[in-house]
């Protein structure tokens, strides 16, 4: 299976649907340890993404993901806009001039996206951020000759849930110290939804 323009667009539309459905839950998580706006910001931002990309015909993946990135950077407040925007901008750059991406190229793009998130947010694995989902997922896809999307989905969910036991080291949540333990990180939760949406678009099959 390859990441085609049609499937990439479906991925973003599915992610938006998941975000809209989980908006209140993401907000509740962020109210517990952050600014309380993650769900609303993500819902607003990806609604704007859908408005931008759904009616647009793209010839290359990088053009699509660049539109996703720039929409998020311009429309989403807080930390989530710049972080997700940077991720999709780096993914766009990695897939430049490609009309479809095989496993190797897509993995290269995901690695570039993770590097962008880490550079922008200065976070590392274990800091109770979206990196705690992104890095294990990228490590998994880099280590596999065939990506099993059901395993990727399960891994992302497991790593999201593990952030509940971590003490926040970054952002507003870090001000709570040990009181941040016991709540799933909202950025990790939305990142899980991103990868779950990817798995759905491939119907939990395989990516060769």
What does this structure look like?
Its EC number is 2.7.1.121. With 208 residues, this protein is mainly alpha-helical. It has a single domain, classed as Alpha Horseshoe (Serine Threonine Protein Phosphatase 5, Tetratricopeptide repeat). It is 66% helix and 4% strand. It has helices at residues 5-33, 38-53, 61-75, 80-94, 103-121, 131-143, 149-162, 186-201; strands at residues 3-4, 100-101, 147-148, 206-207. The strands form two sheets. A two-stranded antiparallel sheet has the order 1-2. The protein has a two-stranded antiparallel ribbon with strand order 3-4. It is globular, with a radius of gyration of 16 Å.
Keywords:
208 residues, two-stranded antiparallel ribbon, 8 helices, two-stranded antiparallel sheet, Serine Threonine Protein Phosphatase 5, Tetratricopeptide repeat, mainly alpha, 66% helix
CATH architecture: Alpha Horseshoe
What is the tally of beta strands?
4
Side by side, the strands of the main sheet go: 1-2
Helix-strand topology string: EHHHHEHHEHHE
Topology (elements, then pairings):
Elements: E1 3-4, H1 5-33, H2 38-53, H3 61-75, H4 80-94, E2 100-101, H5 103-121, H6 131-143, E3 147-148, H7 149-162, H8 186-201, E4 206-207
Antiparallel strand pairs: 1-2, 3-4
Helix pairs in contact: 1-2, 1-3, 1-8, 2-3, 3-4, 4-5, 5-6, 6-7, 6-8, 7-8
């Amino acid at each position: 299976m390859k990441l085609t323009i049609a499937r990439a667009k479906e991925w973003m539309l599915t992610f938006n649907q998941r975000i809209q459905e989980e908006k209140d839950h993401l907000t509740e998580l962020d109210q517990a340890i952050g600014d309380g706006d993650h769900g609303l910001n993500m819902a607003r931002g990806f609604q704007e993404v859908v408005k931008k990309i759904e009616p647009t015909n793209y010839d290359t993946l990088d053009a699509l993901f660049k539109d996703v990135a720039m929409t998020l950077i311009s429309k989403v407040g807080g930390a989530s806009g710049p972080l997700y925007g940077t991720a999709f901008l780096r993914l766009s750059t990695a897939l430049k001039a490609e009309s479809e991406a095989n496993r190797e190229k897509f993995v290269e793009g995901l690695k570039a996206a993770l590097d962008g998130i880490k550079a922008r947010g200065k976070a590392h694995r274990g800091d109770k951020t979206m990196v705690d989902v992104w890095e294990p997922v990228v490590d998994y896809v880099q280590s596999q000759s065939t990506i099993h999307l059901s395993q990727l989905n399960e891994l992302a969910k497991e790593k999201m849930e593990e952030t509940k036991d971590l003490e926040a080291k970054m952002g507003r949540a870090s001000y709570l110290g040990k009181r941040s333990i016991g709540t799933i990180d909202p950025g990790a939760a939305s990142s899980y939804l991103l990868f779950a949406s990817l798995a759905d678009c491939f119907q939990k099959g395989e990516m060769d």
